[in-house]
Amino acid sequence: MKLSAVAKPKVVLGVSGGIAAYKACELLRRLTESGHDVRVVPTDSALHFVGAATWSALSGNPVSTEVWETVHEVPHVRIGQAADLVVVAPATADMLAKAAHGLADDLLTNTLLTARCPVVFAPAMHTEMWEHPATQENVATLRRRGAVVIEPAVGRLTGVDTGKGRLPEAAEIFEVCRRVLARGAAASPDLAGRHVVVSAGGTREPLDPVRYLGNRSSGKQGYALAKAAAARGARVTLVEANSTLPDPAGVDVVHVGTALQLREAVLKAAADADAVVMAAAVADFRPAAYASGKIKKTDDGGAPTVELVRNPDILAEISADRALPGQVIVGFAAETDDVLANGREKLRRKRCDLLVVNEVGERKTFGSEENEAVVLAADGADTPVPYGPKEALAEIVWDLVAPRLRSLPANDSEKSPTRPDFTGPAE
């Protein structure tokens, strides 16, 4: 549904000079079609990739790069002052450096200095440029000041190269912008400077090359948690098991299959994490033996016997042996009966800080866009979450996690881990 003309949020779309500038056209379309009043402010370099006429036609607003045009309107001040959100996509290494150091040599950098609204940067550049210490320091500076700098995507770059530095898809950047706007101008990115780990999806334990033991989890709740954390300024690692959902913008995604693979990935990512949220449905058991060939039916009509062994209890393990002092651990409990009683017992047994308890079933929660839960805390507090979008539950979880992090020093999570195996120019 489109917003009314009275309530139209004013968005400034900054576009800097990278090959990925063409993708900003799709972001602009999504913003305008969802009812936002968008003013595009490109750099001179950006106009080498997409012309001013295109930006003006798609936005319905005039386009300028210079502070000297329409001087009587003082655009270098007014545009930033009137904005409800500024998003820069793509944000090149040069633009990040200028923003971090307060340079103001064109209309976009002036707008960034005068804006008092939330600011989102969507970087796109060479992998080597993203990993350079200068860029990482600039990103850390912007995040400390409250800007949301989403992580670049990993994928195909210019030419035949692949790596980290690709501009996330427009739909995912739009999702970050929507969430930031929904939180309002007064809401600070309260997870800035934090590294959080979220698990999502459902593990599968192979029986043979064809069959597996699995569950109904779609991963939607874990993905909602990851997206919400990214919009609140966190560096997010999403450990995903067998979901078909697209990778969220600004999130480092690790794809796994089994419970043992998920455990390995979570323990590795949690080594420097401020918070770990275990939203994945992890199999309690796995087959004791894997059949290298397909298990065949027998002529006598009998069924094979499958011996099961227990999988590691990942939630209990990371709660008992926390990688960092004060690390916040959140678990999920999917119950079918005696929901709260079983949840409180699980909270005691797992020794986590928060436990999200919900009732599940064939037509409840799994695969749905909605959820209903109670968040139990180790200090005895209960927070009921009424039936509604999984996005709403995700925000409440982070609302409960954020205060528990305030007494902890921010780790060095502003600096994304380098990936020396990724090379090549950026998109």
Supply the key terms.
single chain; 427 residues; alpha/beta; eight-stranded mixed β-sheet; five-stranded parallel β-sheet; 13 helices; 19 strands; globular; disordered N terminus; disordered C terminus
Report on this structure.
The chain is globular and about 80 Å long. By secondary structure, the chain is α/β, with parallel strands linked by helices. The protein has 13 helices and 19 strands. The protein has helices at residues 24-33, 52-59, 75-82, 93-101, 107-114, 127-131, 133-144, 170-183, 220-231, 259-269, 314-320, 339-350, 390-405, and strands spanning 10-15, 37-42, 85-91, 119-123, 148-149, 153-156, 162-166, 195-201, 205-206, 212-213, 235-241, 251-256, 275-278, 285-287, 308-310, 328-335, 354-359, 370-377, 382-389. The strands form 5 sheets. An 8-stranded mixed β-sheet has the order 12-11-8-13-16-17-18-19, sandwiched between helices. A 5-stranded parallel β-sheet has the order 2-1-3-4-5, sandwiched between helices. Strands 6-7 form a two-stranded antiparallel ribbon. The protein is 31% helix and 23% strand.
